[in-house]
Amino acid sequence: MKGLKSIMCASLAVMALACNPRQEINDLDPATSGKGAITFDLNLPSYNHPRAILRADEEILKDKAKINTINGLRVVLYKDNDQGEPGEVAYAFDKDIYAFRGVRKGADLLNPDDTAGVFSITGINGIEPANYTLYFFATPSKALIQATQPGKDFGEIKRPLMIDFADKFVTGEDMGYHRALYSSASNIDSPIKVSEEALLKSVASNPIKLGGITLRALDGIAIAKLDIDQAKQAPSGVIIGEAHYFYPDVLNKSVILFPTLDKDVEKNLSIPKDDNYDGMEGWSETQLAEAFQYNPISADALTSTWLKTKADITDPIILPENTTAPGLLSNRVVTRLVARLNVMPTSQEEGFAIKDNTSWFSYKGKNYSWVEFEKKYTSAATKNNNGTTITKEEKTLLEIGLTINKALNKGSIVPKYGDKLPTVPAEGYDSKDLKIYTWGCSYFSIPIRHYSDEVTQSLKTIGRYGVVRNTLYLISITSVTRIGAPTYDSLPKETNYTAAVTSDLSIDFEDRNLIKNEVDL
User: Fold this and answer.
1) For residues 25 and 515, which has the higher predicted lDDT (pLDDT)?
2) pLDDT band (50, 70, 90) for residue 309
3) Residues 6+ apart with CB under 8 A from 410
4) Longest CA span, the chain
5) Lateral strand order in the sheet of 305-307
6) Residue 27 gets which letter from DSSP?
7) Radius of gyration of the chain from Cα atoms?
8) Among 71, 133, 237, 519, fewest CB within 10 Å belongs to which?
9) Alpha carbon of 352 to those of 236, 347, 349, 418: distances in Å?
10) Distance CA 194, CA 38 (A)
């Protein structure tokens, strides 16, 4: 967690493998005036696929450091100024390494078969001897690459850096049919110093060996699961199906690598301040869209994964750091998960039984299976169009069908009584009388809580909601006692978080800190 007391900073050490006795630079052989070289190993997690290893809370605690991903590594050498501080970028090296779901590969990865150990990576050479400060960036964004071009001042990476959510480098398609953010990480809390003397010695002997390099995540990760409390669920009137989806939404478009902190001295709390932390009063929708990535559910939406069974858990959902001052909390600025859950009402019209993972609709409070309704509607329409007398019940079906056709009509021809039903709209449908739940899915909004009610008893306390770097948020849905919104767009547009939205949160500060959000929907 950025700047928080619970941070366990990465430990970095520099080892020179040369074993020659110490010499003054002026005493070295002239041959050492050439170019130096550096080699290193990267101590990153083993990236096991969490669906296979995370089944219970204690296993998440044990294996939570293994859920990062990486797509590329940028090594940046800043030449130190006279005060020993990083000045301008002297060198920037991009390494082709990749890790996802236990697969490790890349032209610069020397040990792709070692899935549990460190990353051994090809070295960097051709370095003019001088005093340098080294930074490592896993999954560098376009903005970071631009800010670390040779000749750029160190101050360039202290400014907000934009995330390009359309960049396939940071939002790959490795999970099959959808896109998900890769995790980003760096050693910005513990930069490495390499001296001119060490580089001079590396020319005549062995390259400098950097050991114990550990990168710390710059983003948060959420994992969702259903952990249903049957005592709450049984009397609810809602049946939970098997397939469920989770989408990250309201994502911060910028990252501050070196943030300042907002502090509550009385409670001994601190929270990093991102570029959108405060000052958003009265922002227009255009201003909000420039600051946050809203993620309406579509074919190209960023999505985490889906659950095959209620006992499963999702793949990691990467969330850019996003914190907000207490007085500005709303669903327009607070990062959330949109849960697309397969749920059905127990109240169903006779003869129109709704099956798991199938579309259904509610008309004036009565619930129908789309498949069963379409069969009986088609039969009634055929009889009516052929001049055959229809029953009162069949007339009701035709009236409902006409309402559906009018609601979903996108052409210029006005639908008529008995027309063929359209296909189920992929995005669902929502109006006062008609609500269509495509594939049986309805939508719920789960804002990410950072501190629990016990810690933030007052709504004015910092850190109540937000995503903080290097933090794992476990979202446990303990009950679903209502049918959600039939579409993403019908989720409430303006919700001020002025009361507790989640319950029974507990917080466990560890290396990739675990924060449990238990949610009743």
Assistant:
1) 515
2) low
3) none
4) 110
5) 305-307, 238-249, 336-345, 441-447
6) G
7) 28
8) 237
9) 21, 11, 5, 19
10) 9
* CA atoms of 38 and 100, how far apart (whole Å): 27
**Is 454's pLDDT higher than 70?**
yes
CB 453 within 8 A of CB 518: no
Mean pLDDT on 199-215: 84
How does residue 306 score in pLDDT terms, banded at 50, 70 and 90? low
Buried (b) or exposed (e) across 39-69, using 16+ Cβ within 10 A?
Answer: bbbbbbbbbbebbebbeebeebbebbbbbbb
Answer yes or no: is pLDDT of 27 > 60. Answer: no
**pLDDT band (50, 70, 90) for residue 64:** low
As a whole number of angstroms, the distance between CA 496 and CA 142 comes to: 34
Burial of 512 from C-beta contacts in 10 A (0-12 / 13-18 / 19+): buried
Q: What is the pTM of this model?
A: 0.84
Residue in this structure with the two tokens 């294996």, named with its chain if needed = 63
CA distance 341 to 493: 19
Q: Judge contact between 78 and 87, C-beta under 8 A.
A: yes
Residue with token string 């109240």: 347
**CA distance to 82, 121, 382, 386, 398, per residue, from 379 (Å):** 87, 68, 5, 11, 10
Helix H or strand E segment including 407: helix 392-408
Residue 305 has phi, psi (to 5 degrees) of 180, -170
Show Cβ contacts of residue 18 under 8 Å, excluding neighbours closer than 6 positions: 201, 202, 204, 205, 206
CA atoms within 13 A on the CB side of 115: 9
Q: Judging by beta carbons within 10 Å of its beta carbon (0-12, 13-18, 19+), is residue 126 exposed, middle or buried?
A: exposed
Place of tokens 């997690």: 45
Q: Average pLDDT of the chain?
A: 82
**DSSP code string of 104-153:** EE-TTBS-TT-SSSPEEEEEEEEEPSS-EEEEEEES--HHHHHHTSTT-B
The CA distance from 216 to 482, in Å, is 39
Residues 105-120 pLDDT 10s: 999 999 888 766 788 8
* Residue 100 banded pLDDT, cuts 50, 70, 90: confident
Q: Which domains does the chain have, with CATH numbers?
A: 13-217 (no CATH), 221-344+439-520 (2.60.40.3690), 360-423 (no CATH)
The CA-CA-CA angle for residues 498, 503, 506, to 5°, reads: 115
For residues 323 and 277, the answer to whether their CB atoms sit within 8 Å is: yes
pLDDT at 17: 30
Q: How far is 45 from 214, CA to CA, in rounded Å?
A: 9
- CA–CA separation, 164 vs 142, rounded Å? 7
CA-CA-CA-CA torsion sign (258, 263, 268, 270): negative
199 pLDDT higher than 80: yes
Reported as a single tens digit per residue, the pLDDT across 224-233 is 888 888 888 8
440 — pLDDT class (breaks 50, 70, 90): very high
